[in-house]
Structure formats: C-alpha cells, structure tokens
Amino acid sequence: xxxxxxxxxxxxxxxxxxxxxxxxxxxxxxxxxxxxxxxxxxxxxxxxxxxxxxxxxxxxxxxxxxxxxxxxxxxxxxxxxxxxxxxxxxxxxxxxxxxxxxxxxxxxxxxxxxxxxxxxxxxxxxxxxxxxxxxxxxxxxxxxxxxxxxxxxxxxxxxxxxxxxxxxxxxxxxxxxxxxxxxxxxxxxxxxxxxxx
Length: 197
Hints:
This protein is mainly alpha-helical.
C-alpha cells in the first residue's frame, strides 16, 4: 500500500512536470499564473468585455489559482503552529489556551510575510524553491523515513531496500530542485540580467 501510494504520487508529479515542459517549452515559468497570461493558448480569450473593462480566461484561471491558496496557506500555518505548540508543551496532556496558541501561530505567519516582502522581486523563484523542496520532503523523503522508523523490526531486506531507494530519490529530488532554484535566484541577481519576456 505504501509503495503504491508513493509511486502514484511520484508518477503524478513527474507527469505534470513533463506535460508542462512539453506545452510551454523554454518559456516555462516557476509561476503557473505567468504561463497562463503569457504563453498559454487561452491567453487571448476574452470572457467579458464592458467598455474598457474586460476579463480574459487567463485572468479568471489566475484568480482561481490565487483563491486556491486560501485552502493551502491556512492549513500549512495551522500545522506548523501545531508543531510548535506540541514541542512547547512536551509531554503535558493539558491543551494550551487559545491566546497562547494564537501567539504561537502569529510568528509563523509573520515569517512567511517577511520572506514574501524581502523576496518580492524574486518571489516566484523563492516559492518554487520552498515549495519544491518541501514537497519532495513531505511526499517522498519524510514518509519513507517515518515508515522505516515505525516498521523497521517487521521489514525484510526487499522492503528495506525499497524504502532506502525511496528516501534516496526524495533526497536527490529535493537537492536537485534546490540547486536549480538557487542557481536561478543567483542569475536573477547577476549584473546585466534581463528577465524573460
């Protein structure tokens, strides 16, 4: 079950990445909203035009992508804050008060906001770096490590080999994504850099 889920998830990621690169080619951007507006076949489609006001299909799709972030950012902040709360409480069974929990959640959101303000000009690359590395860690690397820790006494050589391969692939993907995005960030800050049109 574990291997089938990981294989399905990895295959889906690989298929989406390959399809995006096949469609957009070298103009592929780290932000899907940029691709929708500039190099997508739906970029010029108009949905509504009232005088000077107009809404294109790419704008609607970009707005839907932005709206979807409300269903991902809030849970992410909540989970990170819960980790901090659990670490702060240790083995105590009693739950922290709502005020303490809010005070612990606020810095998590504040750090995310500070990073976005500082890295505003290269936010797409920062988002790609953090999202790609975190995605590989949460979908391949950490589940493999946790599975090994929980089931190491019941695993045979074949299972240990598969889990080790999964962890190695996850680590390699995280490093690969990190190196590529750090290199892109370095290039954007180099003198004479011209952003792609």
